[in-house]
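To: structure desk
From: M.T.
Subject: fold request, one chain
Message: Could you run this one when you get a chance? Sequence is below, nothing fancy, just the single chain.
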Amino acid sequence: MRTGADYREAMRDGRRVFVMGAGRVDDVTTHPATAAMIDEYVRWYDRHADPAWQNIVLGPGATPVSFTLPQSSDDLVRMGKSYAATTFPTAGNVTHTPAYGHIIAMGMLIATHEHGHAESIARAKSYREMIAKTGRFLTFCGGAPPLGIRLNPDPAQRAALKIMKETDAGLILSGRVGMHTSPAYAEDVYIGSLNGVVIDGHPASFVVPVGGKGVTTLCRKAAVRDPNKFNSPLSSRFDELDGQMWLDDVFVPWEHVFLVDPGPEAIARYLLWHHLYGWLAKAEFTLGLALALTHAIGLKEHEPTVEYIVDIVTEVATVRACLTASERDPVFTPEGYCTPNYQHLMPGGIAILRAHQRISEILRALPGSSLVVMPTDSDLADPEIGAGLEECFGGAGYTALQRAALLQLAWDHVASGLDGRESSFELHASGGIPAWRGRLRRAFDRYNELANGVLTALDLQMPEIDLTSIKDRPLAPRRVNTAPAPEKAR
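Reply: Done. Structure tokens follow.
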């Protein structure tokens, strides 16, 4: 496993990165918009050499759990525990890590097997092995173009990418690819088959280096944060800066070209599992904050507050149970790869998506007015008002500074720009409740068994029921942006 210092040095690869509102980023390891996240990824790598973490992030033979190719339920359980432990400290805000990159590569491998193109299978196998050996950081994009390109009046110009030239060594691509996560911090981006390139009748996908010649990464504006880290303990550290990728005559070797079925579902086989761990981390962090505040503001004997706590516990326990079931009752591919069972995973995602706003509202409501009018560390140090603030916020075993730190943490968690980003992006990235319901509908395999099973309770000959059509219905199609018709000349 590489060290955090190795990763930091790899980020100085001449990459061309822009952050909306902040302009060109010359060095992502030092720029104010990106340096804190680089530090977080450095910590992620360095945990593998930290004795306090090794029983979580290392498996048999001291191999990194995050780079396991799972072939048993025990492998999935071990990986899941690692995801849970490493995601919780970020309150679920760091959704894409090198561990996430590896499961993208695992999804690529399965997707190429399903498509059946032998060369692509070999390429995906080789690339995944390289990721596991080096710890190289990969992130994911479905491949769809940005809005303006989708609205081009010429349908032939609506694809994200175009082949500019084909050589014996590879392809030269140009185009604009829509949103993906942590592009400023990753080393490679997987561009999925929604990019519009077709090779010999096969939808094509690609791996492109962020620091490659002709590659430009454009990140969204940074989340609004207080410059005082006491007031922004989360948003000052965890901002993944989702972005676009522009390719201008970028060379992609054949080794990084993968022919797969259309759509991202096969690639996402493991990603949704990781998404749910991220959402669980946010819910568990919310529960932890609610418990800490309940103690700090003297409400542990207050029955309505305890009921609030039980509401969050219920949601957390539901998701935990779904994750455990998905890992303990897995699905195996024909090649022997072990994957989480969607019949159990999808209900967990639907439950937490429905509960997300309610959980956040509980944490906003629990502290009452103290979450609105709360001091900062500089206020408490102010000679004119510090003593009065100590009187207002201190006492019963807590200093005003300690209570204020908890309140600021809660505010940053559920009332900041960071929380808004998480709410909007994660619903978009995973497809939202309709997509999770569609996946569950297709994964559930007991329609006929249960329907015909109840007929045995009747002392009557009944026709055999076949409800296969429920399972076989396709997922909801991606929404299509309609370009306005060109105006007629006057």
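Reply (cont.): The CA atoms of residues 94 and 265 lie 22 Å apart. Let me know if you need anything else for the meeting.
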